[in-house]
Amino acid sequence: MSKSLQAIRGMNDILPEQTPVWRYLENTFAGLLEEYGYSEIRLPIMEFTELFARGIGEGTDVVDKEMYTFLDRNEESLTLRPEGTAGTVRAMLEHGLTGGGQVQKLWYAGPMFRYEKPQKGRYRQFHQIGVEVFNLPGPDIDAELIILTWRLWQKLGMADAVTLQLNTLGSSEARARYREALVAYLQERFEQLDEDSQRRMTTNPLRILDSKVESTQALLVGAPTLHDYLDEESIAHFEGLKARLDAVGLRYEINQKLVRGLDYYCRTAFEWVTDRLGAQGTVCGGGRYDGLVSQFGGKPTPGVGFAMGVERLVLLLETLGVVPAELKRPADVYVCAFGEPAELAALALAEKLRSAVPGIRLLLNAGAGSFKSQFKKADKSGAQFALILGDDELAARVVGFKPLRGEGEQQNIAWEALPEHLAACIQRA
Ligand code: ATP
Ligand code: MG
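Above: inputs. Below: predicted complex with adenosine-5'-triphosphate.
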């Protein structure tokens, strides 16, 4: 195929064989979130570039290296959204939905775009399902978010394959003090740092804690730790969160290296990670961002949220072999008709059955064909039963009813009796 007819690298087609798994995941999540009282929000997939530059922040990989940014025909700089939080905050402010302390509990799902090196579990168009909550400052809501993700893993049958990493980042003042201490410590060892970390010394030093480079991790062993710099209120918040996770029996690991390097992140940070997917093991990440709304010029508004990567979750479901078999349930009936008069009667009958038996999975043969070829198609479709209509059946106002799987003889059923007969057979199958 010529190059121009290929999909863009890192942007995947989700083919019909896979969409049932995606829909299962999305529906399970949406159902759960509705049960917890969250509402869906749908946002544009493009925003003005400035929104992300301000909302995610210079000095992050996303803004510095990963955005799909271009000028539109009006010379305005637009960016394909790399994440969902900035757009959600923009929408809250634009529509006045967080003013006067209004609580908002929102979820969203959709494609995100980042110019990254494509590999297993890392793509340039990928999909996130996320939650954002506004105007609830306490640890109770942080706990609820974590607990509901845990319930999702349980529903999906993957709870044993993921672990919760938890940290508190303290207030932004506490982190500023810690950052100074960390920078002072690393400054003395600057030459030994890897190149990325050297760059982060000026842009985003806390992200160095997160470095995957072993020599850098070795340097960090003696470094000051964030928890020595925490403010009292943040400690109390963290204790409150842990108490709630303990109350429901949710296990966690404290990971002091789990940071989000920006000033408006504070207190709770968490990630759900798995060791079953190789390097791309984080399936969900989130935390508190009380400073973000004011970053956009709004009144100070507490916020907390998370986002999970759908591709990684689909991979994990498949790796664990926990995709429910019934997702691929084949048709109930395949209707064969021979000759134009029978085809017309079969069409009318099929439409009657669709009305009379809600949810019936009925395939009506298309493209005519001989007995042999229609039976072959009926069999291949995986349907439980074939309905057969030729001139004789038409004259007698019956159909041939033929079980395609297992035992059972073909028998004639009167058209009037068909809905009831089918409903009963499908229920048994
Ligand atoms: P990572 O460290 O893996 O790059 P991140 O910190 O950039 O992740 P977030 O911005 O917190 O990720 O996004 C939340 C989730 O979205 C991640 O935990 C992951 O599951 C998923 N995700 C992020 N980037 C990608 C990508 N390029 N391809 C697929 N999934 C992704
Ligand atoms: Mg990333």
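The first strand starts at residue 39 and ends at 40.
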